[in-house]
């Protein structure tokens, strides 16, 4: 299997590129001289990041695409824009995603339908469009950002967890379909990370959001390495690997109970320091 490392003729498309994992992916690809197509809702942040990386690493081109992938039309619009500009996407990073905290019967349906569009439909749509071109060339790489909750039900974050279970299953099915082609599809399954995710999901007061966190730099680095090696799945962090492994041993009801505890808001006893509990 050929790799694409260090090839300055290659181009990567990264969704959700304005912060978090997406920003770190952009830095890693730029360092290896990939030309960048950066997609997010915030055009200003994309321009600041993209043009600074272009100057620092002397990239041939950086394409800034302001787009909201919670809109059903966005994937086709992105694809058409790149086609019109003669840009070939060699690597697709489906990174954009969002969640919403709360009991499903109380949360906002409109936001959840937008999350499904963003986390599932846009991933399928972008993959369909760009994978066809990769198959025609018999070359390409795709990284789909799933989650540690891809392996387990997550009460109080039910739609998000279910959407990431879809991403993992979808990715693993494509791996089998493409096993005889020069194309790899990798699933990145991070645990809680120090990004804006919990704040945007209105979950910043949960136990999960106030426990151990991976840095976005570490997660992106692990995901990038796995992508370049053509690995099928990467779960960054020892404890996350243990949790993913446990999902094969414990019943779903036990996993759901554990995740509910993590996604519940912190109580007073959670806020006490070890010394104050003595």
Describe what is shown at a glance.
This protein has 278 residues and is an alpha/beta fold.
Description:
- With 278 residues, this protein is α/β, with parallel strands linked by helices.
- It contains ten helices and seven strands.
- The chain has helices spanning 20-31, 43-57, 74-84, 109-137, 158-177, 197-200, 216-229, 238-246, 252-263, 268-271, and strands at 11-15, 35-40, 62-66, 91-94, 140-145, 183-188, 233-234.
- Strands 3-2-1-4-5-6-7 form a seven-stranded parallel β-sheet, sandwiched between helices.
- Helix 4 (109-137) runs parallel beside helix 5 (158-177).
- The termini are far apart.
- The model is unreliable at 1-7 and 273-278 (pLDDT under 50).
- It holds the Pfam family adh_short.
Describe the SSE topology.
Blueprint: E1 11-15, H1 20-31, E2 35-40, H2 43-57, E3 62-66, H3 74-84, E4 91-94, H4 109-137, E5 140-145, H5 158-177, E6 183-188, H6 197-200, H7 216-229, E7 233-234, H8 238-246, H9 252-263, H10 268-271
Task: Indicate the proportion of strand residues.
Answer: 5-15%
Shape: globular
How do the helices and strands follow one another from N- to C-terminus? EHEHEHEHEHEHHEHHH
CATH top-level class: Alpha Beta
Could you tell me the mean pLDDT? 93
Give the proportion of residues in helices. 40-55%
Give the CATH architecture.
3-Layer(aba) Sandwich
Protein name: SDR family oxidoreductase
Keywords: Oxidoreductase
Pfam families: adh_short
Family: Belongs to the short-chain dehydrogenases/reductases (SDR) family.
Notable features of this structure?
NAD(P)-bd_dom_sf, SDR_fam, oxidoreductase, alpha/beta, disordered C terminus, Rossmann fold, SDR family oxidoreductase
């Amino acid at each position: 299997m050929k790799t694409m490392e260090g090839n300055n003729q290659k181009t990567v498309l990264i969704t959700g590129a304005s912060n978090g994992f997406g920003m770190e992916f952009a830095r890693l690809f730029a360092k290896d001289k990939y030309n960048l197509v950066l997609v997010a809702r915030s055009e200003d942040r994309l321009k600041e990041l993209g043009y600074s990386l272009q100057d620092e690493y002397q990239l041939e081109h950086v394409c800034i695409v302001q787009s909201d992938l919670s809109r059903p039309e966005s994937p086709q619009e992105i694809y058409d824009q790149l086609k019109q500009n003669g840009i070939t996407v060699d690597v697709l990073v489906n990174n954009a995603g969002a969640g919403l905290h709360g009991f499903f019967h109380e949360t906002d349906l409109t936001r959840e339908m937008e999350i499904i569009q963003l986390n599932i439909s846009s991933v399928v749509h972008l993959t369909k469009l760009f994978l066809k071109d990769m198959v025609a060339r018999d070359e390409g790489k795709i990284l789909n950002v799933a989650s540690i909750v891809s392996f387990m039900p997550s009460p109080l974050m039910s739609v998000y967890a279910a959407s990431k279970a879809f991403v993992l299953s979808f990715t693993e099915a494509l791996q089998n379909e493409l096993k005889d082609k020069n194309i790899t599809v990798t699933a990145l399954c991070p645990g809680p990370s120090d990004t804006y995710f919990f704040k945007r999901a209105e979950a910043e007061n949960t136990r999960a959001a106030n426990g151990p966190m991976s840095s976005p730099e570490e997660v992106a680095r692990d995901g990038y390495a796995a992508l370049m090696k053509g690995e099928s799945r990467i779960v960054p962090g020892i404890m996350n690997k243990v949790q993913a492994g446990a999902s094969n041993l414990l019943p779903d009801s036990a996993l759901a109970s554990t995740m509910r505890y993590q996604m519940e808001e912190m109580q007073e006893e959670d806020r006490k320091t070890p010394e104050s509990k003595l």
